[in-house]
């Protein structure tokens, strides 16, 4: 294991110390627990948005706490769920009198955590609704969306719901927007190499020197096909098939696209891959109104990438384009 | 070689096609040559800022073309200089009547390119000044700064000069600011693994399974010491020594810090490393007014990082804090 760290067991807490040291004007923690991360710039009367999940995916999850985005994140160990107590403490801080929406990925531990936190919040009179991200088309067939993993496409839900809450929508309206973003978003990933969990100290899985695994999850969950790495354009075509099929995109439709590096893949390659995505969408007459290329949901040093596409209506297009500001994700209006 | 690409010889041009496809409202090219990249939002009457250099370092160099930043970049092959003709065409487009400042790294090929381009511009009546970045303290001893390589710290020069030009300073003033930023910036890097140049197809250098190389350049130029990887805090301490020594930072001083990942190092580790940087600076009574943590100057998939520190006066602090907007680097005021 070749990582910059001190002790493996301090990996997450020292990372968090670094984050608070770097961004004291934007992020802070509550309940005397650095894993209860909240915005340092709460907005009174706004619907609170809370997420959480395991560490090892920066900027996911905590990186989307910021203006026009989320209000808090409960931070777990590497690939581990945070506790219900932590999620509850974040909820209390995020509640600004208008209730709280949970948006998190479809993993058993996280569901348990947030369901219990919601009960604790209810007992305190805080209204909480929940939405579980499940954008990974490779993780279960169509028709079984409730079994699918949540991966990078959750960014689109954060962005749309975050902008909706910033506009002053109420809790039910923000949930409606989040559900619409989810219903219109699909993701597929591919991995070339494994990550290493610091406390484990060796690769989570092995993969042949010239192989790729299509459909792999961001913790190394098995994909749908392993085989020799193909030219970039062919890899993109194989991944776009199910995404475009499920979204039934047709001429005149508008989309936002997220080309997400999993950690070890250089940005140069992401742009080579995006070139093909743009070409295929242009051929179909689909208009790309917003493009993100970079690292948005990683698996530490894993090489690979994912493509997420969200079909836009006018409302989603407006919300995606809205200004946002976190230390990990800043955009100007437009 | 395990990379997402089509043909190795198309690596740079397909990357550029992807970049133009992704950001058509912000970037375009001139002279019918996609390697002559300029902003799509030129500002009439503003001093033009131009950079350039080899590909393989995204977001460097072209990623800093944007509002409040640079106006154009001449793009070379992977680790190769662009041509003088390309730099000249970018210069013509960047000139908005107030002259052009070149800011680029201290590499022989780039110096030849930009010196020749400056002559061509002069022949057309465009006033051009030049500043060569040389922030890498590991590449030559103090007193021989003119022999040092330019690495990640050039971001601070771009940011300060870009904001100065956006404020309306004239060419001589922008050069003064850029010189001040350079004089107050130092960088040191460390590598854990090599990158692979696509057309070469194998690692540029090899390094032991548990070794690091302190002071290595972003093309794999030899560093100053190779040895076993040490705990993160010790690595930071070794790197901060020369940086803090040369900047003679004392109690009450203010700085900006750039923790730059070289490509293969996860953001989690950068924050663990930053934790120590912040601790050492706090101990010395040095105040950090701006912190950047992420990938700003890479070497494709190379694992490693660099620390850059710029000592701030009030003017540099104001310029660093100014709004900026490129597809690769966006920040709100503050």
From TrEMBL, chains A, B:
GO terms of biological process kind: glycerol catabolic process
Keywords in alphabetical order: ATP-binding, Kinase, Nucleotide-binding, Transferase
One annotated Gene Ontology cellular component of this protein: cytosol
Tree of life domain: Bacteria
One GO molecular-function entry: ATP binding
EC number: 2.7.1.121
Domain DhaK residues, every copy: 7-329
Database matches in PROSITE patterns: DHAK
Protein's recorded name: Dihydroxyacetone kinase subunit DhaK
Species whose genome carries this gene: Salinarimonas soli
Name of the gene this protein is made from: dhaK
């Amino acid at each position: 294991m070749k990582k910059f760290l001190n002790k493996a067991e301090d990996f997450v807490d020292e990372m968090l110390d670094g984050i608070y040291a770097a961004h004291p004007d934007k992020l802070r923690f509550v309940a005397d627990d650095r894993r209860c991360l909240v915005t340092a710039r709460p907005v009174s009367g706004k619907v609170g948005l809370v997420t959480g999940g395991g560490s090892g995916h920066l900027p996911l999850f905590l990186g989307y706490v910021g203006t026009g985005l989320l209000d808090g994140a409960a931070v777990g160990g590497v690939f581990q769920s945070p506790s219900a107590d932590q999620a509850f403490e974040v909820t209390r801080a995020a509640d600004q009198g208008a209730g709280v929406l949970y948006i998190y990925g479809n993993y058993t531990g996280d569901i348990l955590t947030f369901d219990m936190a919601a009960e604790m919040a209810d007992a305190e009179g805080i209204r909480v609704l929940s939405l579980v991200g499940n954008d990974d088309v490779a993780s279960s067939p169509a028709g079984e969306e409730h079994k699918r993993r949540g991966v990078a496409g959750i960014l689109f839900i954060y962005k749309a719901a975050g902008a909706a809450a910033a506009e002053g929508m109420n809790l039910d309206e923000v949930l409606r927007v989040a559900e619409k973003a989810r219903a219109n978003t699909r993701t597929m990933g591919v991995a070339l190499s494994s990550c290493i969990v610091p406390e484990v100290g060796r690769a989570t899985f092995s993969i042949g020197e010239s192989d790729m695994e299509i459909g792999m999850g961001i913790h190394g969950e098995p994909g749908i096909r392993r085989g020799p790495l193909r030219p970039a354009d062919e890899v993109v075509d194989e991944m776009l098939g199910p995404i475009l099929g499920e979204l039934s995109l047709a001429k005149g439709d508008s989309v936002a696209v997220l080309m997400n590096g999993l950690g070890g893949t250089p940005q140069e390659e992401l742009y080579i891959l995006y070139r093909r995505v743009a070409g295929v969408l242009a051929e179909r007459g689909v208009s790309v109104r917003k493009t993100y290329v970079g690292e948005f949901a990683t698996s530490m040093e894993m090489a690979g990438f994912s493509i997420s596409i969200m079909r836009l209506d006018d409302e989603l297009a407006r919300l995606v384009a809205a200004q946002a500001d976190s230390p990990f994700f800043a955009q100007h209006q437009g």
